[in-house]
Design goal:
The complex is a heterodimer of chains A (131) and B (148). In chain A, 25% of the residues lie in helices and 37% in strands. In chain A, strands 1, 2, 3, 4, 5 and 6 form a 6-stranded antiparallel sheet that branches. Chain A has 131 residues and is an alpha+beta fold. Chain A starts with a strand and ends with a strand. Chain B has 148 residues and is an alpha+beta fold. At the A-B interface, helix 1, helix 3 and strand 2 of A face helix 1, helix 2, helix 4 and strand 2 of B.
Chain lengths: 131, 148
């Protein structure tokens, strides 16, 4: 496994947020109402933090080469991901570097996610198991 | 208003079992665009050694978010939910969640910190089968933004 893994890009639209709200049960209106989002000082509707984390999780399982490889997974949400009401929405780019191989043979990845060039996560890492 | 520090270390009784459905896992996987066969096709999951479809890594929040409501919504703790943002999230897995699991959650308040006018609440949810087999431990840090 290379030290730097190939970045993966995910498009995020309002439709994705509506679908995620239904699937996850997180109906916080800041993820679907511009009126309520701007009312609490946000630039507009933002993605669920857990939706962003789910996209990072997809990237991790692709890098791991197995859907069930994740042993530990943690992030800090450092900045919101605004999702404009357009067909294009926005993009989240996920990249990773290999930090170490642990004594148990697991691989620790240090993860980065950016939106419009801004880091939206910090202290993000995953521990993955080789099958 | 500061959160009630006496909640630190407190655990709640196990929640009633959440029955993980195959269609719920498929719905969640579709919602995040995860196309791996093991999330959708029981045969593909069986080939990996599971009884049914497996859930993507962040699926447990669909269970733990509502389970931890009993903590964050407790008026005695003093959270103004309109001021809450999600700070950190972490999962430590014993194994993936699999369709057919009946999972119970035990919530514990691990930490309450006041810093810079904000309050930080860390909850831990231990997710096990009804028989007590550990499946995943989920930590969430919520930030209650100070007023002003």
């Amino acid at each position: 496994m290379a030290a730097e893994l190939a970045p993966q890009t995910f498009r995020v639209t309002r439709a994705d947020l509506v679908r995620y709200a239904g699937a996850s049960g997180d109906f916080n209106p800041i993820h679907w109402s511009d009126r309520i989002a701007t009312g609490v000082g946000l630039p507009g509707v933002i993605a669920h933090g857990m939706f962003t984390m789910a996209l990072v999780g997809r990237a991790v399982t692709v890098w791991a080469g197995a859907p069930d490889a994740v042993v530990e997974f943690g992030v800090r949400f450092s900045r919101p991901v605004p999702v404009p009401d357009t067909d294009e929405g926005t993009e989240v780019v996920v990249s990773a570097t290999v930090k170490e191989v642990t004594d148990e043979g697991h691989t620790r990845l240090s993860l980065t996610a950016t939106c419009n060039g801004d880091k939206v996560l910090s202290m993000a890492q995953a521990l993955i198991r080789k099958r | 208003m500061p959160l009630d520090q006496s909640f630190v270390g407190r655990s709640w009784p196990p929640t009633g079992p959440y029955l993980v459905g195959r269609e719920k896992i498929r719905e969640f996987a579709r919602a995040i665009g995860a196309t791996d066969a093991a999330y959708h096709d029981p045969e593909a999951a069986r080939a990996l050694g599971y009884a049914d479809v497996v859930a993507p890594p962040t699926f447990p929040v669909a269970i733990t978010m509502s389970a931890s409501r009993e903590v964050v919504a407790d008026p005695a703790l003093g959270i103004d939910y309109s001021r809450v943002v999600h700070g950190d999230q972490r999962f430590a897995y014993s194994r993936p969640v699999v369709a057919g699991d009946a999972l119970v959650c035990v919530n514990t308040v691990e930490e309450i910190i006041s810093r810079g006018g904000h309050e930080f609440l860390t909850t831990r949810t231990d997710v096990t089968t009804e028989a007590g087999e550990p499946v995943v431990t989920v930590w969430s840090k919520l930030v209650v933004r100070g007023e002003g």
